[in-house]
Predict the 3D structure of the following.
Amino acid sequence: MHQLIKATDFTREKLEKLFVLADKIEKNPKKYRNSLKGSVVATLFFEPSTRTRLSFESAILRLGGSLLSTENAGSNSSGIKGESIEDTMHMMAGYSDCVIMRHGSNDSAECAVKAQPNLPFINAGSGGKEHPTQAILDVYTLRQIKGKIEGLSVAIVGDLKYGRTCHSLIKMLSLYDNIEIWACPVRGLELPEEYVVFMKERGMKYFPVSSLSGLNPSVDAIYQTRIQRERVEDKSIDLNAFVINKKVMARFSENTLLLHPLPRVDEISTDIDGDKRAVYFKQAHYGIPTRMALLLSVMGKAKL
Ligand code: NCD
């Protein structure tokens, strides 16, 4: 696999192999510190990012690679002059050995790899549609803490319409058997029908509810999300409809994990940061070994 566009680019076997490699990196990071020596990796972010860009850049540096980075490529690069993704990719093929790109358009990753089919490429978020590397670290987090993914029940909460992390998470979880997805969308930000159809086709169980109290209290994980204010057009949407705080978490089992792709705004109250079920910072840290493993794979240094 030298290009990652979407969550379903993975088979279950490939994903498991990636996780095993991430485990090895976690145990012995020094062993990999020269793996990308002599390689140049470009991070092109046309949309804001903290965790995804910095964890990728940290992963590149920890593997001994060199970095070519444009933060805010939409305003600091030729993107603002109207340069196409295709032309950008043609340039990057001469400047770098791998491109990691985030872009506001849903089909940006497809456009990029079409322009340069041989250049290693990683989609770091495309419009409201896909964020496959977030799904990798989300599923890895569940695997590390719960021990397995099969049979897990996950409640996705918040902006299920524009939340690309939820879309990629559903797709990646579909690689495992007996998954239950509970959905608690903010009114007006419901999960698009295509994902409901997808879950049905893949035999996943789906339980939509309209309030947090409708969720099964013994669900294995709650995946809270931020309202994607930058994509939401309807001004009547209640941005604070579902805030998860101590009181809300008291209703859930002591084994119900609370995840969030971050950044959080107000949708998780800081009063539960100390709760052992709140694993979002740990989840963000898992971005390092998983992204290191992915880089080794797309750049041909490890076979999945
Ligand atoms: C997410 C994204 O960019 O989609 N952030 C991230 O990469 N961890 C979630 C968000 O912005 O709300």
Notes: The pocket of N-carbamoyl-L-aspartate is lined by residues 51-52, 125, 131, 134, 164-165, 226, 261-262 (CB under 6 Å). The mean pLDDT is 96. Strands lie at 3-4, 40-45, 66-70, 98-103, 121-126, 153-158, 180-185, 205-208, 221-224, 257-259.
